[in-house]
Amino acid sequence: MKQFKTLIINEWNTHRRTLLAPMWMLVGVYGITLLGIIIGYIKGGANASINLPPTPWIDTFLYEGTIIFASILGIVSIWAAIIAVDGMINGAFKRKCEILHHSQPVSLPKIMAAKFVLLAFGSMLLYMLLSLFNTLVVGIFMYFWSSAHLYYAIMAWLQTGMGVFLSLLFVSSFFWLCASIFKRK
Length: 185
Prior knowledge:
Elements: H1 2-19, H2 21-44, H3 56-94, H4 98-102, H5 108-146, H6 150-181
Protein backbone atom coordinates (compact mmCIF):
# COMPACT_ATOMS: atom_id res chain seq x y z
CA MET A 1 0.00 0.00 0.00
CA LYS A 2 2.92 2.35 0.69
CA GLN A 3 4.23 1.74 -2.82
CA PHE A 4 0.85 2.53 -4.34
CA LYS A 5 0.53 5.74 -2.32
CA THR A 6 4.06 6.75 -3.30
CA LEU A 7 3.30 6.07 -6.97
CA ILE A 8 0.16 8.22 -6.82
CA ILE A 9 2.06 11.06 -5.12
CA ASN A 10 4.80 10.80 -7.74
CA GLU A 11 2.27 10.98 -10.58
CA TRP A 12 0.54 13.92 -8.89
CA ASN A 13 3.82 15.79 -8.62
CA THR A 14 4.53 15.08 -12.28
CA HIS A 15 1.12 15.97 -13.76
CA ARG A 16 -0.43 18.42 -11.31
CA ARG A 17 -0.20 21.43 -13.65
CA THR A 18 -2.38 19.69 -16.21
CA LEU A 19 -4.83 18.28 -13.69
CA LEU A 20 -5.26 21.65 -11.95
CA ALA A 21 -6.50 23.40 -15.12
CA PRO A 22 -10.13 23.54 -13.83
CA MET A 23 -8.94 25.28 -10.66
CA TRP A 24 -7.07 27.92 -12.66
CA MET A 25 -10.16 28.48 -14.82
CA LEU A 26 -12.28 28.99 -11.70
CA VAL A 27 -9.69 31.34 -10.19
CA GLY A 28 -9.67 33.31 -13.45
CA VAL A 29 -13.47 33.65 -13.49
CA TYR A 30 -13.55 34.82 -9.89
CA GLY A 31 -10.61 37.17 -10.49
CA ILE A 32 -12.26 38.81 -13.50
CA THR A 33 -15.55 39.09 -11.60
CA LEU A 34 -13.89 40.72 -8.59
CA LEU A 35 -11.93 43.04 -10.87
CA GLY A 36 -15.16 44.11 -12.57
CA ILE A 37 -16.86 44.71 -9.22
CA ILE A 38 -13.92 46.76 -7.95
CA ILE A 39 -13.73 48.86 -11.13
CA GLY A 40 -17.50 49.38 -11.09
CA TYR A 41 -17.38 50.45 -7.46
CA ILE A 42 -14.49 52.88 -8.04
CA LYS A 43 -15.93 54.39 -11.23
CA GLY A 44 -19.52 54.84 -10.22
CA GLY A 45 -20.10 53.59 -6.71
CA ALA A 46 -21.91 50.55 -8.04
CA ASN A 47 -24.52 49.27 -5.65
CA ALA A 48 -25.38 45.60 -6.05
CA SER A 49 -28.04 45.40 -3.37
CA ILE A 50 -31.24 44.66 -5.22
CA ASN A 51 -34.02 43.30 -3.06
CA LEU A 52 -36.34 41.31 -5.25
CA PRO A 53 -39.38 39.54 -3.91
CA PRO A 54 -38.89 35.77 -3.78
CA THR A 55 -40.33 34.31 -6.95
CA PRO A 56 -40.05 30.84 -8.47
CA TRP A 57 -38.00 32.06 -11.44
CA ILE A 58 -35.12 33.04 -9.14
CA ASP A 59 -34.86 29.45 -7.91
CA THR A 60 -35.01 28.22 -11.51
CA PHE A 61 -32.31 30.71 -12.49
CA LEU A 62 -30.08 29.48 -9.66
CA TYR A 63 -30.74 25.84 -10.58
CA GLU A 64 -30.00 26.32 -14.29
CA GLY A 65 -27.01 28.58 -13.65
CA THR A 66 -25.47 26.00 -11.35
CA ILE A 67 -25.98 23.28 -13.96
CA ILE A 68 -24.39 25.41 -16.68
CA PHE A 69 -21.34 26.44 -14.69
CA ALA A 70 -20.81 22.97 -13.22
CA SER A 71 -21.05 21.53 -16.75
CA ILE A 72 -18.46 24.00 -18.05
CA LEU A 73 -16.18 23.09 -15.15
CA GLY A 74 -16.79 19.41 -15.96
CA ILE A 75 -15.85 19.94 -19.61
CA VAL A 76 -12.61 21.60 -18.53
CA SER A 77 -11.94 18.68 -16.14
CA ILE A 78 -12.51 16.16 -18.94
CA TRP A 79 -10.27 18.20 -21.24
CA ALA A 80 -7.51 18.23 -18.61
CA ALA A 81 -7.86 14.46 -18.12
CA ILE A 82 -7.57 13.87 -21.88
CA ILE A 83 -4.39 15.93 -22.03
CA ALA A 84 -2.96 14.18 -18.95
CA VAL A 85 -3.53 10.70 -20.44
CA ASP A 86 -0.87 11.14 -23.10
CA GLY A 87 1.60 12.49 -20.57
CA MET A 88 0.97 9.61 -18.18
CA ILE A 89 1.23 6.84 -20.76
CA ASN A 90 3.89 8.25 -23.10
CA GLY A 91 5.60 10.75 -20.81
CA ALA A 92 8.29 8.39 -19.53
CA PHE A 93 9.25 7.51 -23.09
CA LYS A 94 9.39 11.17 -24.15
CA ARG A 95 11.63 12.07 -21.20
CA LYS A 96 13.83 9.00 -21.75
CA CYS A 97 13.26 7.67 -18.22
CA GLU A 98 11.12 4.62 -19.02
CA ILE A 99 14.02 2.25 -18.32
CA LEU A 100 14.42 3.79 -14.86
CA HIS A 101 10.72 3.24 -14.07
CA HIS A 102 10.81 -0.38 -15.19
CA SER A 103 13.94 -1.12 -13.16
CA GLN A 104 12.15 -0.25 -9.91
CA PRO A 105 10.87 -3.12 -7.72
CA VAL A 106 7.26 -2.25 -8.58
CA SER A 107 5.19 -4.23 -11.06
CA LEU A 108 3.95 -2.59 -14.24
CA PRO A 109 0.25 -3.22 -13.40
CA LYS A 110 0.70 -1.41 -10.08
CA ILE A 111 2.34 1.57 -11.83
CA MET A 112 -0.45 1.74 -14.41
CA ALA A 113 -3.15 1.34 -11.74
CA ALA A 114 -1.72 4.26 -9.77
CA LYS A 115 -1.69 6.41 -12.90
CA PHE A 116 -5.28 5.50 -13.74
CA VAL A 117 -6.55 6.05 -10.20
CA LEU A 118 -5.00 9.50 -10.17
CA LEU A 119 -6.36 10.30 -13.61
CA ALA A 120 -9.94 9.14 -13.13
CA PHE A 121 -10.65 9.57 -9.45
CA GLY A 122 -8.21 12.39 -8.73
CA SER A 123 -9.73 14.46 -11.54
CA MET A 124 -13.21 13.64 -10.27
CA LEU A 125 -12.36 14.57 -6.68
CA LEU A 126 -10.89 17.86 -7.83
CA TYR A 127 -13.97 18.56 -9.97
CA MET A 128 -16.35 17.79 -7.12
CA LEU A 129 -14.49 20.04 -4.67
CA LEU A 130 -14.23 22.96 -7.11
CA SER A 131 -17.82 22.71 -8.29
CA LEU A 132 -19.08 22.38 -4.69
CA PHE A 133 -17.12 25.50 -3.73
CA ASN A 134 -18.56 27.39 -6.70
CA THR A 135 -22.07 26.13 -5.98
CA LEU A 136 -21.91 27.27 -2.37
CA VAL A 137 -20.49 30.69 -3.28
CA VAL A 138 -23.09 31.35 -5.96
CA GLY A 139 -25.92 29.83 -3.89
CA ILE A 140 -25.12 31.88 -0.80
CA PHE A 141 -24.73 35.03 -2.88
CA MET A 142 -28.10 34.42 -4.56
CA TYR A 143 -29.69 33.69 -1.18
CA PHE A 144 -28.62 37.04 0.24
CA TRP A 145 -29.29 38.89 -3.01
CA SER A 146 -32.70 37.49 -3.87
CA SER A 147 -33.78 34.91 -1.25
CA ALA A 148 -33.19 32.00 -3.63
CA HIS A 149 -33.12 28.63 -1.93
CA LEU A 150 -29.70 27.01 -1.62
CA TYR A 151 -31.05 23.48 -1.98
CA TYR A 152 -31.81 24.14 -5.67
CA ALA A 153 -28.12 24.80 -6.23
CA ILE A 154 -27.10 21.71 -4.24
CA MET A 155 -29.54 19.53 -6.19
CA ALA A 156 -28.23 20.88 -9.51
CA TRP A 157 -24.66 20.23 -8.33
CA LEU A 158 -25.45 16.62 -7.42
CA GLN A 159 -27.25 15.92 -10.70
CA THR A 160 -24.52 17.49 -12.81
CA GLY A 161 -21.82 15.78 -10.75
CA MET A 162 -23.24 12.33 -11.52
CA GLY A 163 -23.27 13.06 -15.25
CA VAL A 164 -19.77 14.50 -15.23
CA PHE A 165 -18.48 11.57 -13.15
CA LEU A 166 -19.74 9.02 -15.66
CA SER A 167 -18.52 11.10 -18.62
CA LEU A 168 -15.10 11.62 -17.05
CA LEU A 169 -14.76 7.93 -16.24
CA PHE A 170 -15.80 6.87 -19.76
CA VAL A 171 -13.76 9.45 -21.66
CA SER A 172 -10.61 9.01 -19.57
CA SER A 173 -10.88 5.21 -19.89
CA PHE A 174 -11.37 5.45 -23.65
CA PHE A 175 -8.42 7.78 -24.14
CA TRP A 176 -6.36 5.62 -21.76
CA LEU A 177 -7.12 2.63 -24.01
CA CYS A 178 -6.23 4.59 -27.17
CA ALA A 179 -2.99 5.91 -25.66
CA SER A 180 -2.07 2.38 -24.54
CA ILE A 181 -2.78 0.84 -27.93
CA PHE A 182 -0.98 3.55 -29.89
CA LYS A 183 1.86 3.95 -27.41
CA ARG A 184 4.94 5.59 -28.88
CA LYS A 185 8.01 3.41 -28.95
